[in-house]
Design brief:
Elements: E1 5-8, E2 26-29, E3 42-43, E4 46-52, H1 59-73, E5 77-83, H2 101-109, E6 117-120, E7 125-127, H3 131-139, E8 142-143, E9 145-154, E10 157-166, E11 171-181, E12 184-189, E13 195-201, E14 204-208, E15 215-219, E16 224-232, E17 242-250, E18 253-261
Parallel strand pairs: 4-5
Antiparallel strand pairs: 1-2, 3-8, 4-6, 6-7, 9-10, 10-16, 11-14, 11-15, 11-17, 12-13, 17-18
Length: 263
């Protein structure tokens, strides 16, 4: 059984880089379990899109919440750090920037107003103080989609295979594939107002593989489809720290997600 975690019980704050007071109450949360005898029910993996920025003083606190979730739920929880928005940093001659044009596009599309803020399976914006409770709620739901993801590095490119199967019901939506990188050392504003020049950024969105919004996918009940993609390696990526995330979504949110480290 995975370690139980705690959530911070405070009201939603709407200011950019909102601050958590030290005296806020901690609420105990039991680890989630999911029991089902229905073969059409698939265990859900939850996707958190963390809209973050190197100029955001409370974003490191949001990252601490993500680390708690990763410890508690392991592979059933996927976080993606999307750098952009007003507190993103694109870099300069002396410092590495992680903000991207696609990060700005996502931030603006979802009409987000502050950072850090997250989308949990794309069911609306959630303040980082509520991530643990909302992820736990989402993990209690089953999915109608099974996914298998493989990724291998060969000849300067990533070869990706995504198998998607509709279990129990038909599905229509989009398939999205992203490249992430861990272990990037770059500048970051800290909660005490200082700047950490050696901060380690993980699960950073590097690029979409199949377009900003992915591609249309339709599955009949019981149908499986296989999609293959290739992605060229950028010169500033560390191939030892790359991973691939794939997920399917529609207007009802993300139905299933999966992640694999590149071999």
């Amino acid at each position: 059984m995975r370690k139980a975690i705690y959530i911070i019980g405070i009201a939603l704050l709407v200011a950019a880089c909102s601050h958590i007071n030290e005296d806020e109450q901690l609420i105990y949360v039991e680890p989630i379990t999911q029991d089902t005898d229905d073969p059409s029910d698939v265990v859900r993996t939850v996707l958190l899109e963390d809209f973050t920025g190197q100029k955001c003083v409370n974003c490191p606190t949001g990252t601490e919440v993500i680390e708690q979730l990763q410890e508690a739920y392991g592979d059933r929880f996927i976080a993606v750090g999307i750098h952009g928005g007003p507190l993103g940093f694109a870099g300069n001659n002396t410092a590495i920037g992680l903000a991207t044009a696609v990060g700005d596009e996502y931030y603006n599309y979802w009409k987000l107003e502050y950072q850090p803020v997250g989308l949990i399976d794309r069911h609306g914006a959630v303040n980082y103080t509520d991530w643990i409770a909302k992820v736990r709620e989402e993990l209690a739901r089953t999915s109608s989609i099974e996914m298998i993801l493989e990724a291998q590095l060969a000849s300067g490119q990533i070869n990706i295979t995504v198998d998607t199967k509709a279990v129990g019901t038909e599905y229509s939506g989009n398939l999205q594939v992203w490249i992430l990188e861990d272990g990037i050392t770059a500048t970051q504003k800290m909660p005490d107002g200082s700047t950490n020049q050696s901060y380690v950024h993980n699960h950073v969105l590097r690029t979409p593989v199949n377009g900003t919004w992915g591609e249309v996918i339709s599955l009949n009940t019981g149908e499986q489809k296989t999609k293959q993609f290739t992605q060229a390696i950028s010169s500033d990526w560390n191939t030892e720290n790359l991973s691939v995330v794939a997920f399917v979504y529609n207007d009802n949110g993300v139905e299933q997600a999966t992640k694999v480290h590149i071999k």
